[in-house]
């Protein structure tokens, strides 16, 4: 039996076929190389915003009553970057001209409730004393 197998292998070698390599022969595919990944971005340090100085106060929204307000503002001089923050307020509001009524008027949200004989938003119009 050994002689038969050796004879077959010898004949196949003579023909040009390698019986051992033909059992394991596979077609190789070339792998396409993918481009290298882009380099990582440079490290970034958080930078907070910067703000300018406050504006002057606006005029009061009401001359009298209970709801007068005025505001002042400021602007960013540079924006935040790389995850920085802007912890500063850009607008401030305060009360003004509250509780001010003339001639004994009573403050309310629209101005003043005037006593009999007086009128106007802040009770400034009315009887003159003689």
Automatic annotation (TrEMBL):
PROSITE patterns: EGF_2, TSP1. Signal peptide: none annotated. It holds the Pfam family TSP_1. InterPro entries: EGF, TSP1_rpt, TSP1_rpt_sf. Residues 112-123 form the EGF-like domain. This is EGF-like domain-containing protein. The lineage of its organism: Eukaryota, Metazoa, Cnidaria, Anthozoa, Hexacorallia.
